[in-house]
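Entry 14. Ran structure prediction on the chain below.
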Amino acid sequence: MNSFDVTVIGAGPGGYVAAIRSAQLGFKTAIIEKSNLGGTCLNVGCIPSKALLDSSEHYHNAVHNFSAHGIDIEAPKVNFGQMIQRKREVVDANVKGIEYLMGKNTITVFNGAGSFKDATHLVVTKEDGSTEEIESKHIIIATGSYSTELPFAKTDKERIITSTEALELKEIPKHLVVIGGGVIGLELGSVYLRLGSEVTVVEYLDRIIPGMDGTLSKELTKVLKKQGMKFHTSTKVTEVTNNGSNVTVKAEDKKGEQLTFEGDYVLVSVGRSPYTDGLGLENAGIETDERGRIKTNSHLQTNVSNVYAIGDVVAGAMLAHKAEEEGVLVAEQLAGQKPHIDYNLIPGVVYTWPEVAGVGKTEEQLKEAGVAYKTGSFLFRALGRARASMDLDGFVRMYSDEKTDEILGIHIIGARAADLIAEAVVAMEYRASAEDIARMSHAHPTFAEAMKEAALDATGKRSIHS
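Output, C-alpha cells:
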C-alpha cells in the first residue's frame, strides 16, 4: 500500500497549492483528483470565464471604441467557435502548468475520486471502476463546490444552464436570462451582452453584488444599465420552464406583481454548495454543519485531528485566493510553523468592465457595528490616465477610523480595480492610515493616483484634483 505524509483530496487552487507547499516543506505528498488538475477554477470557472471576458471586451472595443482612437476597420464579426476554442487553449495551458508543478515537486497524482475508508486510509475509485487504497498520516480535504440548483429550476444543461454550460455554448444567445445578481452571473452576463445578447438579470435581494459595499452595487448597476443590461431586483423567481427552443421564467416582484421573461437560455447563478457527496466523511467521523460545510477550528482542523479542510468546502468566502492561503496555512502548521490569515483582508473582485473590488469593512458593516469612521472618495473621470484610455466610470472609496485614521475598508469600481486592490490589501495588512497612503508618491499618470486622492479626501478633504 502507498503511504504518504500528506494527501490532498481535490486539485483546485486550494488543493494543488496545499500539495505544493507540503512538498516544499519536505512531506511525502499525494493529491487525488477525479477530473483535470486545477479544479473548477482552472477548468470551468475563473480562468475560462476571464478568457471569454477578455475576448468579448476586445470585440466590444472594436465595435464601439476603435474609431474614437483613430482606428478605422470594417465592421467586426464574432467567430464564436474560435472564441470558445481560444478559451479551451487557455485552460489547457494552465492545466499543463499544474501538471508540470506536480512533477517538479515530486507529488504523486492519483486520478480518481477519493473517499475515506477511515481516518488514515483513502480509497481512490478510478474512471474504469477499479480502486486503489492509500494510507496517509495527514489528509487535507479541498474538494471545492458546485453550482447550487433551485428546486423549481433544475438545470438540464441545454436551455436551463449553470456557469459550466455557459462557457461552452454553441451559439450566442439572443436573450440570456440570468437568475442571480452575484459575481458569476454578472461576469457571464457581461460576456454575452458584449457579443450582442439581450441580458436580463433577476435578483431576489434588493441589489446586485449584495456582499460588497452598497456604493459599488449602485454604481455597477448604473454602468451595466448604460451598457444595456436589464435588472429586476427584489424579484422572486417562481417557475422556470424549458419549452424546447426557448425558456419561460415566471417571477414576482416586491409589489406582488407577476412577471414573465422569455429567453432562449436561462443561467442559474444563485451561489455554490460545498462538494462533500461521496467523500465517505462518516467513515472517518468527520462532522459537517447545517449547510453541508465541513466543520473546522481556527486552524482548519476538523474534529478528526489528522484531517483538515480548506476552500469552498468550509465556511467563508468561496474564493480561489482564499483557498490558496488556507492550503499554505495548513501545510505550514503541519511543519510546526505559525502562519496566520486575516480573513477581513481577503479581497473580493468582480471582473466586469469596469472591474469591481473591495477589501475590509463595507460602509454597511461599519454602521451596523457602530464604528465612527471618515470617508474619502475620488472619481476616476478626474484622472488624466482615465481620460486618455476613455475609462471614465467609477471611483475609489476609502473608510478610515475617525480617531486613529487607520484604514478600515477600501472599495473600488473602475479600470484595473482588480489590480489596484492589492495596494489596499498591503496597506491594511500593515495597518496603514489614510494619511500614510496620502503621503506616498503615486506615479503619474496612473489609475493608482485615485487611491492617493481618496486617501487625501479621507484626511481632511485635501484631494488635489477634485
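The mean pLDDT is 97. Will compare against last week's run tomorrow.
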